[in-house]
Design brief:
about 950 residues; seven-stranded parallel beta sheet; 35 helices; 25 strands; about 15% strand
C-alpha cells in the first residue's frame, strides 16, 4: 500500500449475512479511487436463482423482477476477480464484505483475493470521533455526500469512495505529531486498516511548525484556548412588550406565538417592574408553545446589566440542545451576543495529566487503545475537553483512566491553563448564560454562584425532575460486595500474570516491597472480616427471598440489632481501614521520593493501584456511613434490600430513603439566586393541587403560577378513546390480563396500521405482551424496551418503517421525540400508578400518613396524572401533527378520581368511550377523515 495504490471500494447487496445459510450476492458494485479521485465504476445485479427475502426487498428495493435477466455469480466471477487483483479492497465494514466475496469466489472455483483491505467504518470512528453515528447514510448526510439510493450497492460504493477521500484529507490536515502518536498505540484494526494510517503518515507533509490554532504540550497536540472577546452590544436595547413590537423586532426570525409572548412578558415584567418585588414564577408551557425562547429572550435583555443567567435542565443531552438554541436562535437569528457555557461535574472532562500517562501505557485493552486514538484526534478539535463529545459508553474502562477523579494525584497538572477543568472555571468569569443539569445544580449551587458576579437569575427547566434529584441526593446505598470486588482489583494490580504487576515493578526497592506485603496482609484481614459481617447481616435481617421480586423491605429494628451485636467487629473494620490508608500513604511517599526512576507504564500501574485501594476505603466508609444513618433513623423513612437471582450477598445493595425535602431545595439552591423561574411542559395536575408546590419546596404567597394555553387544536388534531369494558389491571401479570392487552393492541392496530407507541409502567408486562405480538401476521415491526435495545436504538430502528409498534416504558413517557408528523397512535394499557406494594411506595405512604396526608391523593394520583400528560405529549409536537390516544383502563370512567385525570389531561379534549370494536371503527374514521381534510 503506497501513495500510488489503486483502491477498489466495494459494496454488495445480499440475501442475508449468514454464509452457513448459503446467503448470496444479488448486487455487486465497485468504485475505483486513485490519486485522490474516483477514476471509474462498475455495477451489476446478480441472479443465482435464489429467492430474495421480503425484508431484503423492503430494504434494498431489489426483487425477483429486478434480477430476472442478470448474470449469475459464476458468470461474473472472472471479471470481478480480474478487476480487483492488485488493488486495495475497501468497504464500509470490511470484515463482512471481504470474506463474503472471497467465499463466493472460492465457491465458483476462484482463489481468495490475497490483497490488502481496509475498513472505512473504523477510519471514520478514529478521524471523525465526535459523530453520533457511523452508518453510511448518516456519514453521507454529515459530509453532504450525494447518496441518492441508500442500500443500492452502486450508490453505497460511490458514497464510500467519497468518504475514503474525506478520511484521507482529514489525515493530511492533522499534525504529523498526532499521526505518530496514533501509530505508537499499535492499534488492532480490521485487516490492513492500520497500514493505511501508516501510509498516510508516511506521505504526510512534514512541517517544522504546527498548523495555526494548535499547540503542543507534554507530547499532546491541543487546540489553542482563546477567551471570548468582550460582549458586543446586542441589536435590541429595549424589550418589545407588544405584539407589534415583537413582530417588528423579530421579523423573519421568530414566528408569533401568543403563549410564547405571554411567557416573555411575564418574565420580563416580574424582574424589570420596580414597583413590587419579584416573585418565583411557576410556568407550565405546553409542547409547541416555544418555551425555551420564551424564557431566553427576556433574560437576554435582563442580563445586559451584567447579571449572569443560570439555566438548569434535566439531562446532559438537553444541556447540549439548550446551548444550540442560544447560539443559533438567540444569537445568530435574533441578534444577541451572549456567551454560553455548558457546565457538568468534573468526571465528564478529560484530565490531560492522566491521559498523557495513559496514552503511552499499553493496557492490553483493544477498546481502550482505540478510544485513546479517538481522543488524540479530538484534542485537535475540542475547546472544552468534555468527554461526552466523544459518545464513548459511560461504562467504558478508558473513561476511568482519563477523566478527573476525586482522589489526589501525585503532582499538579503540568498543563497549566490548558487543564480543561481550570479552563472551564476561567470561562465562567466571562459567560452570560451557564447551562447546568439539575444534579450539578443541587450539588454545586454554592460553589457556582460564588464565582459569578452579583446574584444570578435561575431558570429551572423540566422543573418536575428537580424533586427527584433532591430525593436521590438524600438516598443512601451500601453495596455489600464493594469491598470484596475492589480488593480483587487491588490484588490483580499486585499479582496479575498477563502483564507486568506491581510486585515485579517494586521488587528492586526493598522498603516499597515490604510495605506492599503489609498492605496485602491488611487487605486479606479486611476481606475476611467483611465476608463474616455480611453473613451475620443476612442472618440478622431474616430475609425471605422470592423469585417474584428483587426488592424487599428491611426492618430498622433488625438493622439496629445487627449493629449492637457487631460493634466489636465494626470497630475493628474502622481500625483496619485506618491501617490500610496509612500503608497507602507510606507507599505513595516512597513512590514520590523515587519518582524519576519509573517508566510511564509503571506510573500508570501506580495510579490504577491507588484508585482501587481508594475504592476499597470508600466501600468501608460507605458501610460505616450507612450504618450511622441507621442509628440516626429519625431522619430515615424507609429501608430495603435489592438482590439478584443468585441471592449472593456480594450482589446485594441496602438502600435507605428520606422523603422530607421541605426547605432542602431552598437551602441547597434557592437562597443563592434571584426569585426563580420554574417551567416545563407538564407541571400541574389541577389549579388547586398542592402537589407541585410540595415537590418543589415552594410557598404560594411568594410564587406566581401561570398555565399557558397550548397552540394545538385538540378537538381537530386528537381523538381520545377509552375502552369501557376492561379487566382490572393485575398486581402480578396474569395470562388473562396479558391476553386482553395484546389482543386490544392488535385489533386497534389492524383497524388502521400506523406508527404506534404503547406506554407501559411495567417491564414485566412489556415482555409478556411482546411475546404475544411478535411475529403475528399482519403486524409490522414490533420493538420493545428491555428487549430490542436501548431507547435510542429502538428509535433508530423504527425510522423509515411504515407502521412499527413500539412497546415503551420509563423514558418513553417523556424522554423521546419522534420525527414530526410520524407517530399517529398512543395506547396506554393502564393508568401509570406506582406499584403500591413496592418497598419504596410503602415507605413513602408511611411517611405521608405521618404528615397527616393521604398518600393516594397527595402523591400517587398527581404523579400518575403528570406521567399520563407527559406520555400523551409524545403525540403532538407541531401544529400539523395528529393522532389517536387510546386508554385501556376503565377506572378512568368508573372511579371518582377518573374525572380529575380526564380534566387534567386537556380541558378541551373530549373523550369517546366504547368497546374495542367501536374504538377500532372510530380510529379508522378519524384517520381517514383527517387525511382527507389535509
Amino acid at each position: 500500500m503506497d501513495s500510488n495504490s489503486k483502491y477498489a471500494v466495494v459494496d454488495m447487496e445480499t440475501t442475508g449475512t449468514d454464509l452457513r445459510r448459503d446467503d448470496r450476492i444479488i448486487q455487486f458494485s465497485v468504485s475505483f479511487v486513485q490519486n485522490g479521485k474516483i477514476s471509474s465504476t462498475f455495477s451489476t445485479y446478480v441472479n443465482d436463482g435464489v429467492a430474495i427475502p421480503r425484508e431484503i426487498t423492503e430494504l434494498t428495493g431489489i426483487d425477483q423482477t429486478t434480477i430476472k435477466t442478470a448474470p449469475s455469480f459464476d458468470q461474473l466471477a472472472p471479471q470481478i476477480y480480474q478487476m480487483l487483483r492488485g488493488t486495495v479492497f475497501v468497504a464500509h465494514n470490511v470484515n463482512f464484505d471481504f470474506p463474503f466475496l472471497n467465499h463466493h469466489l472460492e465457491r465458483v472455483g476462484f482463489p481468495s483475493l490475497e490483497i490488502e483491505a481496509i475498513d472505512t467504518v473504523t477510519l471514520s470512528q478514529i478521524f471523525f470521533p465526535t459523530l453520533t453515528s457511523y452508518r453510511l447514510s448518516d456519514l453521507s448526510a454529515h459530509f453532504q455526500i450525494q447518496h441518492q439510493h441508500p442500500h443500492s450497492s452502486a450508490s453505497d460504493a460511490d458514497a464510500t469512495a467519497q468518504l475514503l477521500l474525506r478520511i484521507a484529507q482529514r489525515m493530511q490536515d492533522l499534525p504529523n505529531a498526532t499521526l505518530q502518536s496514533l501509530l505508537a498505540l499499535d492499534l488492532k484494526l480490521p485487516q490492513q486498516t492500520h497500514e493505511f494510517i501508516k501510509m498516510g503518515a508516511k506521505v504526510h507533509p512534514k512541517h517544522d511548525h504546527l498548523p495555526a490554532g494548535l499547540i503542543e504540550l507534554e507530547g499532546l497536540v491541543l487546540k489553542k484556548h482563546h477567551l471570548p472577546a468582550a460582549a458586543q452590544h446586542n441589536r435590541l436595547a429595549k424589550f418589545p412588550l407588544s405584539k407589534k413590537q415583537k413582530e417588528r423586532d423579530f421579523a423573519g426570525h421568530l414566528e408569533w406565538r401568543a403563549s410564547q409572548s405571554k411567557m416573555m412578558n411575564l418574565i420580563y415584567r416580574n424582574f424589570a417592574d420596580g414597583k413590587q418585588p419579584a416573585r418565583n414564577l411557576l410556568i407550565e408551557a405546553p409542547t409547541g408553545s416555544g418555551k425555551t425562547l420564551g424564557y431566553l429572550v427576556p433574560l437576554a435583555f435582563l442580563s445586559q446589566s451584567g447579571t449572569p443567567v443560570v439555566i438548569s435542565t434535566a439531562t446532559i443531552s438537553l444541556q447540549e440542545q439548550l446551548q444550540t438554541v442560544v447560539q443559533e436562535q438567540l444569537n445568530q437569528d435574533l441578534g444577541f451576543h451572549l456567551q454560553s457555557l455548558v457546565l457538568k461535574s468534573k468526571r465528564h472532562y478529560l484530565d490531560l495529566s492522566r491521559f498523557a500517562t495513559a496514552v503511552v501505557a499499553d493496557d492490553s485493552n483493544h477498546l481502550s487503545q482505540f478510544s485513546k486514538a479517538q481522543i488524540l484526534v479530538w484534542l485537535t478539535e475540542t475547546e472544552t475537553g468534555d468527554l461526552d463529545e466523544l459518545h464513548i459508553p459511560h461504562n467504558a474502562a478508558i473513561l476511568q483512566q482519563v477523566n478527573y477523579q476525586s482522589e489526589p494525584q501525585f503532582t499538579d497538572s503540568e498543563f497549566g491553563d490548558y487543564d480543561f477543568w481550570h479552563w472551564q472555571m476561567q470561562r465562567l468569569q466571562t459567560t452570560d448564560i451557564i447551562i447546568v443539569n439539575h444534579h450539578y445544580l443541587y450539588q454545586n449551587a454554592t460553589r457556582l454562584t460564588s464565582q459569578l458576579t452579583g446574584i444570578p437569575y435561575l431558570v429551572v427547566d423540566e422543573a418536575h425532575h428537580l424533586p427527584e434529584v433532591a430525593f436521590a441526593a438524600q438516598r443512601q446505598e451500601w453495596w455489600l460486595g464493594a469491598v470484596k470486588a475492589n480488593v480483587g482489583r487491588v490484588r490483580n494490580d499486585i499479582f496479575q500474570t498477563h502483564e507486568q504487576n506491581l510486585t515485579e515493578i517494586v521488587q528492586r526497592n526493598r522498603n516499597l516491597s515490604a510495605n506492599l506485603q503489609r498492605l496485602v496482609a491488611s487487605l486479606t484481614q479486611i476481606e475476611e472480616q467483611q465476608q463474616q459481617l455480611l453473613q451475620n447481616l443476612i442472618q440478622s435481617l431474616q430475609v425471605r427471598f422470592t423469585q417474584q421480586a428483587n426488592v424487599i423491605g428491611v426492618s430498622a429494628a433488625k438493622l439496629n440489632q445487627f449493629m449492637r451485636q457487631q460493634q466489636v467487629e465494626l470497630k475493628h473494620q474502622e481500625q483496619q481501614a485506618r491501617r490500610l490508608e496509612q500503608l497507602l500513604t507510606t507507599i505513595n511517599q516512597s513512590l514520590g521520593q523515587t519518582d524519576g526512576q519509573w517508566l510511564a507504564s509503571e506510573y500508570e500501574t501506580f495510579l490504577r493501584f491507588n484508585e482501587h485501594v481508594h475504592q476499597v476505603l470508600q466501600g468501608l466508609a460507605q458501610m460505616q456511613l450507612f450504618l450511622r444513618s441507621v442509628a440516626e433513623q429519625q431522619s430515615v423513612d424507609g429501608f430495603w434490600l435489592r438482590y439478584g437471582a443468585d441471592h449472593d450477598p456480594n450482589n446485594m445493595r441496602l438502600e435507605l430513603a428520606r422523603f422530607d425535602t421541605s426547605t432542602r431545595l431552598h437551602k441547597q439552591i434557592y437562597q443563592y439566586f434571584k426569585p426563580i423561574i420554574f417551567t416545563g411542559a407538564v407541571l400541574f395536575t389541577s389549579k388547586k393541587s398542592q402537589y407541585i408546590y410540595d415537590q418543589l419546596d415552594l410557598r404560594r404567597n411568594n410564587t406566581r403560577m401561570k398555565r399557558l394555553a397550548a397552540d394545538f387544536d385538540y378537538q381537530k388534531q386528537v381523538q381520545l378513546m377509552i375502552a369501557e369494558n376492561t379487566p382490572m389491571p393485575a398486581v402480578v401479570e396474569n395470562e388473562e390480563y396479558v391476553a386482553f392487552v395484546a389482543n386490544s393492541i392488535q385489533k386497534i392496530y389492524h383497524a388502521q396500521p400506523v406508527p404506534t407507541l404503547v406506554l407501559f409502567n411495567s417491564l414485566e408486562l412489556i415482555q409478556a405482551v411482546y411475546a404475544k405480538l411478535h411475529d403475528q401476521a399482519g403486524i409490522g415491526m414490533v420493538l420493545a424496551a428491555g428487549i430490542s435495545g436501548s431507547q435510542s436504538k429502538i428509535i433508530r430502528r423504527s425510522e423509515g418503517k411504515k407502521a412499527p409498534i413500539i412497546l415503551g416504558a420509563n423514558g418513553f413517557w417523556e424522554g423521546v421525540d419522534f420525527p414530526p408528523n410520524y407517530l399517529k397512535s398512543i395506547i396506554i394499557p393502564r393508568i401509570p400508578f406506582a406499584a403500591p406494594d413496592s418497598p419504596l411506595m410503602r415507605a413513602r405512604a408511611h411517611y405521608l400518613k405521618q404528615q397527616n396526608k393521604n398518600p393516594f391523593t397527595s402523591y400517587s394520583l398527581p404523579h400518575a396524572i403528570i406521567e399520563m400528560k407527559q406520555g400523551i405529549g409524545r403525540l403532538l409536537r407541531r401544529s400539523d401533527d395528529h393522532g389517536i390516544i387510546t386508554i385501556l383502563d376503565n377506572r378512568i370512567l368508573t372511579k371518582r378520581y377518573g374525572k380529575q385525570i380526564l380534566t387534567a389531561l386537556e380541558e378541551n379534549l373530549t373523550a369517546k368511550t366504547g368497546s374495542i370494536t367501536e374504538i377500532q371503527q372510530q380510529q379508522k374514521e378519524f384517520l381517514l377523515k383527517y387525511n382527507q381534510r389535509k
